[in-house]
Design a protein that fits this description.
Blueprint: E1 10-13, H1 16-20, E2 28-33, H2 59-80, E3 81-91, H3 96-108, E4 113-120, E5 135-142, E6 152-153, H4 157-163, E7 166-168, E8 171-177, H5 207-215, E9 219-221, E10 227-232, E11 239-240, E12 244-245, H6 267-277, E13 283-286, H7 293-300, E14 304-309, H8 312-326, E15 335-337, H9 343-347, H10 351-365, E16 369-373, E17 385-389, H11 390-397, E18 402-404, E19 410-412, E20 421-425, H12 433-445, E21 450-455, H13 460-473, E22 476-481, H14 482-487, H15 491-499
Parallel strand pairs: 1-14, 1-15, 2-3, 2-13, 4-12, 13-14, 20-21, 21-22
Antiparallel strand pairs: 3-5, 4-5, 6-11, 7-8, 8-10, 9-10, 16-17, 17-20, 18-19
Helix pairs in contact: 2-3, 6-7, 7-8, 12-13
């Protein structure tokens, strides 16, 4: 099939197995993937929804299930990748060997394997009964005549101090051989006399080039009469990047690019891959793009890009990041497509994704508000999110810090003791009185007098309990349906907020 140009600057929300099938053959120049083991949140059988993954309990069983999940997705990647394209699979020690043998060698072919790259992602790890795991593995496959732009790194400081020991008006330099060694063997056209010196195995360059180097004061002669070539440090490109990458730090806790995404990779890591294996105008694809680091790197390096992720929250984070870090405008410079906006699709979301969507949709539906989602599904103590009323905080409650950003945007540094409205989310059709009572206890514990409850629907017992709590204790629990979240119909809820002095 002839190459077709796919739509770029787009993020697709959905399973990449489905989204990849919509792309034409041979249309992508570079693919990078960093698929978590629980890629679609229904596969928590692998290592759970945490950053620290446990070792295999049943090595063959877990690996087999994982490979069966990934194989058809990588097969689709192979189909859309150009024959001159490159593919990088980011993984770690749990499954890297299975991935190479069971998936990549089978699909791309053993001869397409180019490198196993080791990225040192941390300097220490608390493994007390085995060697500490401090690296990730990146498997690099490519077809014939793939794009390659060498990456050069600065010389090691000790190397420079050891070998670049000479200096003249031009700069610091080291001595390099200008004559051939016995292992290189003689070449008749390079065997000649120059300034009375005839090397046994000849020179490494022609007479004319040697004369030009000597005239430019780039040849020096030792006390024994042996000639050497001056190589100046400032003229060297550096050392070619090896397969062990220990010069790129992971995303630090205080880093400005940190988003709180558990497996976030540094932009510098993706920039190295994009620079080496693509050219300006090429198309970069990340079918498991998480918080969008590959997309940011591609955008900054003038590549076209396509992102895919199954999580609506990840797609939202990516969009916000492209706007903030790259100055792009959604619906003008890039698109997010297939976000779940129907009740049916929301029913099918994994619980944590449903929770994330509800909390974010609630803050979008109430002007002048922002929200924070509970970082974990367990241990949230009955509160899945917190809704901050920005206007009220900044004007009445006195937020600790309000900093102006671009175009009037405001960001507040919240204090845990400041006012907020707790949010509870249940992926249920009929929330009952026990659910309301549980949320009521959490509201009381946090010394709040109001809260939002989001679900598909509510039983009469739940509504009557909310009425009782308001009449008897002046505790306001507003029941919001998923349909209201989709339609952003919050007129009634806003009236309650105003009545309670919230805005």
């Amino acid at each position: 099939m002839s190459e077709q140009a796919p739509k770029t600057s787009v993020i697709y929300c959905g399973d990449c197995l489905d989204e990849l099938k919509r792309l034409p053959d041979n249309c992508i120049d570079l693919v990078y993937i960093d698929p978590p083991f629980n890629s679609n949140r229904n596969y928590e059988v692998f290592w759970g929804d945490t950053q620290q993954r446990r070792a295999f309990e049943d090595r063959f069983g877990d690996a087999k299930a994982y490979c069966e999940y990934m194989f058809p997705r990588v097969a689709e990647i192979y189909r859309v990748l150009k024959k001159t394209g490159s593919f990088y699979y980011h993984c770690d020690w749990h499954a890297s060997h299975y991935i190479k043998v069971k998936i990549l060698d089978e699909i791309f072919g053993f001869n397409a394997f180019q490198n196993e790259i080791v990225w040192k992602r941390t300097s220490s790890h608390n493994d007390t009964k085995r060697w500490a795991h401090i690296h990730d593995t990146i498997l690099f496959y490519a077809g014939p005549k793939f794009s390659w732009n060498p990456i050069y790194l600065e010389h090691d400081k000790n190397y420079v101090e050891t070998f670049y020991r000479y200096k003249d008006d031009r700069g610091v330099y080291r001595l390099d051989h200008i004559i051939r060694s016995a292992s290189m063997g003689p070449r008749p056209n390079l065997t000649y006399e120059y300034k009375g010196y005839t090397p046994e195995w000849g020179w490494r360059t022609t007479r004319d080039k040697l004369k030009a180097l000597d005239k430019d004061d780039r040849i020096t002669w030792s006390r024994t009469g042996r000639p050497y070539l001056k190589r100046y440090l400032h003229e060297q490109k550096g050392v070619t990047a090896p397969t062990i990458w220990d010069d790129i730090l992971p995303v630090q806790a205080q880093a400005s690019e940190r988003l709180g995404y558990p497996t976030q990779k540094p932009v510098a890591l993706l920039e190295r891959i994009v620079k080496a294996s693509s050219n300006e105008g090429d198309i970069v694809l990340d079918p498991f793009c998480g918080c969008g680091t590959a997309l940011v790197a591609a955008q900054k390096l003038n590549r076209r890009w396509i992102g895919i992720d199954i999580a609506p929250s990840a797609c939202r984070v990516m969009g916000e990041r492209l706007e903030r870090d790259c100055g792009l405008k959604r619906n003008r410079d890039f698109m997010i497509e297939n976000l779940p906006i129907s009740v049916k699709r929301l029913r099918d979301l994994p619980p944590d994704e449903f929770q994330e969507w509800c909390v974010h949709a609630l803050s979008q539906g109430i002007p002048g508000s922002t929200s924070v989602v509970s970082p974990t599904m367990s241990g949230d103590m009955g509160i899945d999110g917190k809704l901050y009323l920005v206007d009220r905080l900044s004007l009445k409650a006195g937020a600790k810090k309000v900093k102006k950003l671009k175009k009037g945007e405001q960001v507040l540094a919240f204090d845990p003791l400041e006012n907020y409205i707790p949010i509870q989310v249940k992926q249920k059709d009929k929330v009952g009185r026990p659910d309301i009572d549980e949320f009521y206890a959490a509201i009381k514990r946090d010394k709040r007098n109001r809260g939002f409850f989001a679900a598909f629907g509510y039983a009469d017992t739940a509504r009557k309990e909310c009425e009782r709590l308001w009449l008897e204790e002046q505790i306001s629990i507003q029941l919001v349906t998923v349909k209201q979240l989709i339609d952003r119909d919050f007129r009634k809820e806003l009236e309650y907020i105003r009545m309670l002095g919230g805005g």
